[in-house]
Amino acid sequence: DLERRIIDEHARTSAAVLGRSRALARLAPLVVAHHQRLDGNGMFPTIADEGVAMAARVLALSDRYEAMTAERPYRSLLSPAQVWSILDEVVGEPMARVGLRALRRAVVEAP
Question: What is the pTM assigned to this prediction?
Answer without folding.
Answer: 0.65
